[in-house]
Structures are given as C-alpha cells and as structure tokens.
Amino acid sequence: MTLSPRAARHCWHAAINPLHATIYFSPDLGKEFAALGVTDRAAVNLASRSAAMGAVGAGVVTATFYNYRHDLIARHVPAVWETASPEQALAARLRAADSTLRRLLGDETIASPEVAEAADLAMRATEACTRHGRTLYAAHADLPVPEEPHLRLWHATTLLREHRGDGHLAALLLAELDPLEALLSHTATGRGMSHKWLKSIRGWEQSDLDAATDRLRERGILDAAGDLTEEGAAVREQLEADTDRLDAAPYEHLGADGLARLAELGGALVAKAVGAGAFPKDLFAKA
Q1: Computed from CA positions of residues 273, 45, 281, 286, in that sequence, does the dihedral angle turn out positive or negative?
Q2: Considering the domain boundaries, does residue 69 fall inside one?
Q3: Burial of 127 by CB count in 10 Å (0-12 exposed, 13-18 middle, 19+ buried)?
Q4: What is an example of a Pfam family matching this protein (predicted)?
Q5: Over the stretch 121-156, which tens digit does the pLDDT of each residue have?
Q6: pLDDT, tens digit (0-9, with 9 covering 90-100), for 154-206
Q7: Measured in whole angstroms, how far is the alpha carbon of residue 21 from the centre of its chain?
Q8: Do residues 209 and 184 touch, judged by C-beta distance below 8 A?
Q9: CB-side exposure of 220: number of CA atoms within 13 Å?
Q10: Is residue 281 one of the residues assigned to a domain?
Q11: Cα–Cα dist 267/271, whole Å
Q12: How many CA atoms lie within 13 A of 178 on its CB side?
C-alpha cells in the first residue's frame, strides 16, 4: 500500500494530537500540580509541557511554544521552578496522564490488546524522528519510556506531537505568520481554538486579537468577516503541506498499513475520550 501524502496528517489530527492533548484539559493535571503547590492554571500548563527542557527561563519557553504571549510566560517562568522542580513536574504530569486516560477510556479499554498495539505502532513511528532543530521533541525524547501500554502510547503521542510541532514552527516562520497571526488564521479554518480560549490559555488580550486580525486583512488572508480568503486558504494549505514534508519520516517508517492501523486504533480511543468529555465543548468554536 502506497503512503498517501495526507494520511499522516489525518492520523496526527484524528488520533495522535488529541490523545496527547487530553492532559491539558484534565482536572487531574491541576490536582497533581496543586499537591506540589502550583495552583495557577497557566503555570500548570507552562510547567507541565516545558519541564522536559529543565528549569528554563521565559525566553526559551516563548521560543519553543511560539504562540503564547510572552508576558504570560514571564509571569510564571522561571518562578514556577522555585515551587516545583522539573523532575517533580514531569512525574506529576505522568500521574495525571495515567488517571486521565483511565477516567476517559475505562480500565477495560486501558487493558485491551488494542491499546498495546497502538502503543507499539506509535513507538515504532518515533524511531524515525530526529532531534536536530527540534527542541521540544529532543527534550521529551530523552525521557524514559513508560512500561504500561497506555502510558507508552501517551508518551509516543507526545513525541510525535512535539516532532511535528517543532517542524511546524519552521513552516510558520517561512509563511511569515507571527504567533497570533498563526493562531487566528488557524481558528479561521474551523480547526483552531476559539477567541475565548486564545485569551484564556495563550494569554492574549482582545486588543492583540484585533491588531492581528487587521494585519491578516491587510495581507489578504482574512476577509472583512474574519474568514479565510482564497489566498488565506492557500497560505494555510501550503503551511500544512510544508509541515507534512518536514514530519514525513516517522510515518514513512511506519508504512502505509501501520499508519492506517494506528489511525484506526487511535481514532477510536480519541472518539471515546471525546465522548467522555475530554475537551470543553466551546474549545473549537469560532469567535
């Protein structure tokens, strides 16, 4: 079976990214970090994802996360490391991933051969990931691989998510989309976060959104209603195509049959997690 150019993108969107991202909207993550003394939601989010890089400062986090407001990051990093060490943060995140997946999927699914198979396939794909130029991926690739299948699967989706994400940043720079322009043009596709969540999670103000929207209109990427123009749709498609090209190796290594099976297994798990309330209902609502 020949690997479709869009097959990897579909698998990433339908099975890999959302399975990893359940952690960021899980109350279990907040509980684990609260036990460490970190109670601010933004601090929890920033520490949980950046901890693999060590006790880094705000500049490193802003660079690697790309689309967060720097002021939000600087408010919490590096101060959060005075309350919880990166090692404690990583352990808390793994415990939260365990409890989150058990709650969303159920113990029967967690113990199923399908989860073990999905974990094996996803880990096999990571064998072709590369560290050079991929800061967040490389940091997570240095972490130990969990033994339990559902946590191995979550770890593998983390690696695949960050590998694609690091390549996506290079594509964003080529497309000359700044952090908020990237977010707003993504929202306009119908796949991105709503403006409410861009402000809540990423730290942007309404004035920032308005200014970025004006810039995108001046470039002909958004129309007066805030929707993508034909040119804007082409920019977003080229952006995704460039990201696909930079992220092709793991899925070519897995092969077409393995990729199709991972998409099938992972997609079913994501559907179950979504049905169990893994994400806020208004997360992807436009405006």
Answers
A1: negative
A2: yes
A3: exposed
A4: HTH_67
A5: 999 999 999 999 999 999 999 999 999 999 999 999
A6: 999 999 999 999 999 999 999 999 999 999 999 999 989 999 999 999 999 99
A7: 6
A8: yes
A9: 4
A10: no
A11: 6
A12: 11
Which H, E and C letters describe the chain, residue by residue? CCCCCCHHHHHHHHHHHHHHHHHHHCHHHHHHHHCCCCCCHHHHHHHHHHHHHCCCCHHHHHHHHCCCCHHHHHHHCCHHHHCCCHHHHHHHHHHHHHHHHHHHHCHHHHCCHHHHHHHHHHHHHHCCCCCCCCHHHHHHHCCCCCCCHHHHHHHHHHHHHHHHHHHHHHHHHHCCCCHHHHHHHHHCCCCCCCHHHHHHHHCCCHHHHHHHHHHHHHCCCECCCCCECHHHHHHHHHHHHHHHHHCCHHHHHHCHHHHHHHHHHHHHHHHHHHHCCCCCCCCCCCC
Residue 284 lies in a domain: no
The CA–CA distances, whole Å, from 35 to 13, 47, 100, 137, 233 equal 32, 14, 16, 27, 45
Please check whether residue 286 lies inside any domain of the structure.
no
Q: Domain range for residue 19?
A: 7-275
What does pTM read for this prediction? Answer: 0.95
pLDDT digits (tens, 9 = 90+) for 30-48: 999 999 999 999 999 999 9
Residue 170 phi, psi (nearest 5): -65, -40
User: Is residue 93 within 8 Å of 104, Cβ to Cβ?
Assistant: no
